[in-house]
Amino acid sequence: MKTPRLTAIASGKGGTGKTFLAINLAHALAREGERVLLCDADLGLSNTGVHLGLSEAGDLPALLSGKRALSHCVTRITTGRRGLFDLLAAPAGSGSLADADEPTLRFLASELRFASGYDRVLLDLGAGVDTIVQSLALAADELVLLLTPDPASLTDAYALAKLVARRGARTPSLVVNMTSSDSEGRRTADALIAAARNFLKISPEYLGCIPRDPQVCEAVRHQAALIAAQSCAPAARAISLLGEKLHSRLQPIAKLAASIR
């Protein structure tokens, strides 16, 4: 049975643009032909639906309580008549899942791991380094760690990388947001990579950067995905490239699965 690839998106602190990246990456991967489920796994402060201007963003509490199956707990995100990806989230601002315990997190990870009909599940994790973030990061097949050139963001991203590395998580890939140039993105990533190699004995991969772009604020203000509203915007083009890179990783896996069958 084919299972989806679980890709967790995390950051060491708030304000890095993590949910913005998750939403737009879901669009980018859908355009690559992937069947995508975006799970808002910020269980304390779910806000993906708000970012998309939705009154209904799925029913994650019903899934976790066992009242409804996953297929009945998602909301389809569309552009015109075209379905793009599915969204699974808790009601915005409810905080109802903030104290989720370890058995609940294991149940969620299992439901997503065996979610039928998807090529990929994107997990938009909460900001910070709490137990929920670490547990879901450990359950993922790959971890995308988002940071900005802000020194505090770099420090907190390293702290998260250290915590999950000690618990056996896969080595994260790095994306730097809100950069003034490609070189600034590279320098920021290199600083974290050097620290991780020296002290954690891991070598994170640099996926790329997303430039600071005034059209991002406009898209957020209008509760729309940038990549759908302004596909030629610099930040949208950068996320499309990130989507291509992540999508390319699925190809060897798909070929291996086909050879086994």
Main features:
alpha/beta, 46% helix, 261 residues, 19% strand, 8-stranded mixed beta sheet, 8 strands
Describe the structure in brief:
The chain has ten helices and eight strands. The protein has helices spanning 18-31, 48-51, 60-65, 102-113, 131-139, 151-166, 182-200, 214-221, 226-229, 234-260; strands at residues 5-10, 36-41, 75-79, 82-88, 120-125, 142-147, 173-179, 205-211.
> How many β-strand runs?
8
Average of the residue pLDDT scores? 91
Largest sheet: 8 strands, mixed
Q: Give the low-confidence spans.
A: none
Shape: globular
Spell the H/E element sequence.
EHEHHEEHEHEHEHEHHH
- Helices, by number, come to 10
Q: Name the beta content range.
A: 15-25%
Helix content: 40-55%
**Secondary-structure class:** alpha/beta
The whole-angstrom Rg is 17 Å
Strand order of the largest sheet: 3-4-2-5-1-6-7-8
CA-CA gap between termini: 9 Å
Q: How would you sum up this structure, described in words?
A:
It contains ten helices and eight strands. The chain has an eight-stranded mixed sheet with strand order 3-4-2-5-1-6-7-8, sandwiched between helices. Helix 1 crosses helix 10 and helix 6 runs parallel beside helix 7. It is globular.
